[in-house]
């Protein structure tokens, strides 16, 4: 199998890795400032971990995209592995969220579940497409990165502000 052509994706991968690194730092600072409130919440520690895990997907996937002459099957496999690891963290967070009476209505929890899983599915689908040699898979990966950024910023807001209300 041939290396995947990511020449046009180089700048995207570099920018994504840098932005995700900064966002991960913001989330960790938010956690450290409000750690008492986070550990007191039954689902907040897992939600925090899942959020960081999702942002780390962007960092490691972006770095993997920058490996020169990488075979499509290797890059696709890496993307699949990273997405699955983050999905496991999301599953743990969602399980804890639905097990508690805190955190809003069932409808709000379902919305959080859709966002949590939905942000990672494009990365997973993109990984499968890339692994099969379909360069359009990188479009799915990009969509997943954007969704992860949006969801993680929302979660950072919760960790910084909303838990103090």
Automatic annotation (TrEMBL):
The chain crosses the membrane at residues 12-35, 47-67, 73-92, 113-132, 138-160. The keyword Membrane applies. Keywords: Membrane, Transmembrane, Transmembrane helix. This is Modulator of FtsH protease. It comes from Herbiconiux aconitum.
């Amino acid at each position: 199998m041939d290396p995947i052509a990511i020449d046009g994706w180089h700048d995207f991968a570099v920018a994504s890795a840098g932005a995700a690194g900064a966002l991960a730092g913001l989330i960790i600072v938010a956690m450290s400032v409000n750690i008492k409130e986070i550990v007191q919440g039954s689902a907040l520690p897992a939600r925090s971990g899942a959020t960081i895990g999702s942002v780390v997907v962007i960092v490691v996937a972006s770095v993997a995209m920058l490996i020169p002459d990488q075979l499509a099957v290797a890059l696709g496999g890496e993307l699949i592995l990273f997405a699955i690891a983050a999905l496991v963290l999301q599953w743990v967070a969602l399980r804890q969220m639905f097990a508690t009476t805190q955190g809003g209505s069932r409808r709000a929890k379902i919305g959080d579940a859709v966002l949590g899983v939905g942000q990672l599915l494009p990365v997973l689908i993109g990984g499968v497409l890339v692994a099969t040699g379909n360069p359009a898979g990188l479009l799915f990966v990009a969509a997943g990165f954007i969704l992860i950024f949006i969801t993680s910023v929302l979660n950072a807001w919760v960790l910084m502000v909303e838990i103090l209300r």
